[in-house]
């Protein structure tokens, strides 16, 4: 009997978790990714989504994630993170996984002077 009660509890908990609102919840996408930032020459140019790019907004480019996806990007070296919205495709060179706007990049870069950093990427559910 005790076994059935425990099983019922687990099933109920699983069902409630699946039905609850996941607003603000994130799920892991990449364990470790390489991030870079857009060059200033792209300011004002159209992105793949049709929006105009601005290095002063909190946006990103990713090869596969749908446009409008909210992504939490965390610098694995210092733990700083930002939430950006995917509005472009890329990056397509250098082994990079995500391109951040300069504003987003600078918020999490810390003291690094490199043009890239290792990050974890989490996608909003």
Q: Judging from the principal axes of the Cα atoms, what is the shape?
A: globular
Strand order of the largest sheet: 1-5-2-4-3-6
Determine the CATH superfamily. RlpA-like domain
The value of Rg in angstroms is: 18 Å
Report the average pLDDT across residues: 82
**Any idea what the CATH architecture is?**
Beta Barrel
**Helix fraction bin:** 10-25%
Span between termini: 37 Å
Secondary structure: number of strands:
6
> In percent, how much strand structure appears in the residues?
25-35%
Q: What is the string of helix and strand elements?
A: HEEEEEHE
User: How many DSSP H or I helices?
Assistant: 2
Number of domains: 1
CATH topology value: Barwin-like endoglucanases
Q: Please summarize the sheet with the most strands.
A: 6 strands, mixed, barrel
Low-confidence stretches: 12-23
- Output the structural class: alpha/beta
Quick one: CATH class?
Mainly Beta
Domain RlpA-like protein double-psi beta-barrel: 33-120
Subcellular location: Cell membrane
Pfam family, one: DPBB_1
Signal peptide: 1-25
Give a verbal description of the structure:
By secondary structure, the protein is α/β, with parallel strands linked by helices. It has one domain (22-124): RlpA-like domain (Barwin-like endoglucanases, Beta Barrel), CATH 2.40.40. It has helices spanning 2-19, 102-109, and strands spanning 26-37, 59-62, 70-75, 81-88, 98-100, 116-124. It has a six-stranded mixed β-barrel.
């Amino acid at each position: 009997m005790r076994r059935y009660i425990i099983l019922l509890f687990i099933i109920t908990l699983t069902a409630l978790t699946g039905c609850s609102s996941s607003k603000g919840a994130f799920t892991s996408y990449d364990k470790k990714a390489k991030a870079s930032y857009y060059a200033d020459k792209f300011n004002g140019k159209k992105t793949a989504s049709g929006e105009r790019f601005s290095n002063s907004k909190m946006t990103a480019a990713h090869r596969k994630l749908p446009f409008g996806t909210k992504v939490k990007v965390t610098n694995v070296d210092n733990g700083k993170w930002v939430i950006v919205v995917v509005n472009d495709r890329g990056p397509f060179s250098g082994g990079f996984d995500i391109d951040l706007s300069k504003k987003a990049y600078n918020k999490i870069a810390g003291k690094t002077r490199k043009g890239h950093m290792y990050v974890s990427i989490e996608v909003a559910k």
